[in-house]
Amino acid sequence: MAHKKIAGWQFTGQNGEFSLEQPDRSSFLYFPLVNEGGMMSSVTPQLHGQVTSGHNTFLTPPLSVEDLHNSRASRNFWVYIDGKGAWSAAGNSARQHAEAYSETADDSLLEAGLLWHKVTRENRQLGIKAEVTSLVPVGSDKVELMKVVLTNMGTGEILITPTAAIPLYARSADDLRDHRHVTSLLNRIYTLDYGVEVQPALSFDERGHRVNHTSYGVFGAEEDGALPVGFFPVQEEFIGEGGSLDWPEAVVWNAEPQSGRDGALHSEGYEALGGIRFASVPLLPGQSRSYVVVMVIGNDRIDVEELMGKYGSAAAFDAELTANKQFWADKVNTVSFHTGDDSADQWMKWVTLQPVLRRLYGNSFLPYHDYGRGGRGWRDLWQDCLALLIMEPEDVRSLLLNNYAGVRIDGSNATIIGQHPGEFIADRNNIPRVWMDHGAWPFMTTLLYLNQSGDLDFLLQEQTYFRDSFMSRCRERDSSWEPAAGSSLRTSAGEVYTGTILEHILLQNLVPFFNVGEHNNILLEGADWNDGLDMAAQRGESVTFTAFYGDNLYELSELLRTLKDRTGSGTLELAEEMLLLLDSLGESVDYASVSAKQERLNRYYAAAPNRVSGIRAELKLEQVADDLARKAEWIFSHLRSNEWVESVHGGGWFNGYYNNDGERVEGETAGGVRMTLTGQVFPLLGRAAAPEQIPHMIASVERNLFDAVIGYRLNSDFGGIQQNLGRAFGFAFGHKENGAMFSHMTVMYGNALYKRGYVREGYKVLDSLYSLSVNFELSRMYPGIPEYINEKGRGMYTYLTGSASWLLLTMVTEVFGVKGLLGDLLLAPKLVKEQFDAQGRASIKTLFAGRELEVVYTSTGSAEYGEYQIHGITLNGAVVTLQRVSEGVLIPRAVLQALPEGQVHELKVELA
């Protein structure tokens, strides 16, 4: 059957609201519903999806993206029409599936916003319309709400009998294929006035066989709070012998429900169903009737009267919907953009929401993210903070401080993140693994915080270190460590050791400098940012992150000099063992010698073997800064001299990796071109790429990695699996980490181009990503940025991606040029003419120095970057004296903090 072209979604409001006709004709669509209390849901146009509060507490069956069209289990709501038969308000019946592409198919419309979801479905032959609105209420209740409005669209009276039918899985995701039936024997099913509750007797999961206290319920009421008339609490009885969830006997035959609403135990040992029968009711033409369905996960038996008193009526639902819209609008509109493209501005609202979603979901609990068990990884902790620094800056200082407690004394870090801030857990799977890039991200995020806040005192805050059985970057085991001893590093005397945040940062960046392979680049270890490069732990090297660490060392040296000037103190204290890593302060190391570097690192490991003496050395800031600068300059020189790949086309690019056979990965051979985008991004982001090299790198990327259909590929086709490099090359080319358009690195490439002054080129990169994402004919995704675009142009792994934080950061700090410089506000716009509206205006609303600012750029001459500069500024109408610096114009923090709180302050910036 030929693919039928359909229109894509359209924005319908000014707060990200959008609509999509016939949404169920597109596969893999799903929408997040979530709150700060831990309720995490997803819903599709046919009300598939899942409802959970964690890996071990799924109300509905856990699912992967393929289950969205394969599984028959959904939040179904049936209507039996007297004389006409059964119809699903969710579009999820065998009959409707069979008629999906026929003339008798339902008409459907999706409408959605921040964060609510509504599907309107109408069957003209049956004369029935259903509007189903779904949301998770704001607050701490683990509840999902659904309101169903049924309307008679025909010319005569109809008699309807509604039935909600939501499978109650009620256990851990681990039980889906491991003892699925056995765990159903634990079910204790109760019928109450409003619905069905399940509380399994025990929980079977990796934590052991324990008495279970969690309960799960599906409850319903009519619009005025009237009770249901009966229930179908057991799934097999509902579907009948030979039946199914998409054509159940109880609905098709309009069977009588079971009564029993006293809360007594109804049955046990069966798969449960939130089957709720409402009273039959006649509907005149144009008449409607509403029903509210409440899905809840409780810590113990559910107080149903309280629950339904709060949510169990149409009026209560409508109030929750209003509160929901307001809450998420306030959250997202902390940052907003106005350019010459209103659709792009609306799209950015969804991108702005995505870092919040990642904070709430982690990397789990959405259909594409079926591999996660909850929580976030080390890298996520730091990159998600990039967006939070812009959106929720008041919370970031404590988050950063807590995160540093995960650093080990060997420069590596914890990989198991606990449920609470600052909680790190020793590896429960006993797998020794280190990602070599992990040490690079914390300083980058902290530097952004310092620039936004000016809070240099943060560097001198004390924090503990993480300790478990692994040491020497997981090369050795500490046989003396016992879990009972706790996960805090101790001194030789047994006391918990703390060091400054600055000490943690220095350690994370100094250790990798010495941890090099045979080509004098930092060892790849378990992998770097690209987790798919996981098969070169012995001889693999990450040239690209060597560049990142080099730039960190340079920035740290500059920061120490600033710290000396700002604080007046000329010294800092560090653990005495770290003197071995600051070699120029004592016995210098020949940086060109791999063996000398490795020998020095081994001496450090021996000096700090999962414990420290507790003695601190007092060092001069200037000398430490000089040592770091010396290391940074050596890296830059080394990379430019030894890792530049010459091209037959002239120019070239940077090699990014060495494989486990010690071979250079990138270059031009008779077999084709091997090139990675990552290998160019990090030299560009910092100082490793010399100015004269940049145009050649850009030309090489355009020639070897740009694809008109899917944008900037993560890598060229390496031709077959690379067992000496990583599993990524076992993926089909054009998918995920093997040659897809991977949004994270594409956005970082754009960011790097802006940073190095290649604004038009950076704009092309970001615009390509936007154009790919909103091309619904190919991408088949709702507004937002996906993790990647596959070879067909489909957006994959939607919503939960660190690229959203990077895109938001890039738009605010680079495109609109609203950034901090050690606490002061720096305005340095890099807008191009397409981003100004017809009146020559472009504006951004954002937070800075605890104040809401609206920065309005007005072009009175050329609107092309490079042809304008800041000519004048007014703040709330008052002229601001221009304080020019090399990048732009500086406004002292004190000026902003003198402004009253609780209102928006306008900065008008004239460009000429």
Automatic annotation (TrEMBL):
GO terms for biological process: carbohydrate metabolic process. Keywords: Glycosyltransferase, Transferase. The keyword Transferase applies. SUPFAM superfamilies: Galactose mutarotase-like (SSF74650), Six-hairpin glycosidases (SSF48208). Residues 627-817 form the Glycosyl hydrolase 94 catalytic domain. Residues 118-312 form the Glycosyl hydrolase 94 supersandwich domain. This is Glycosyltransferase family 36.
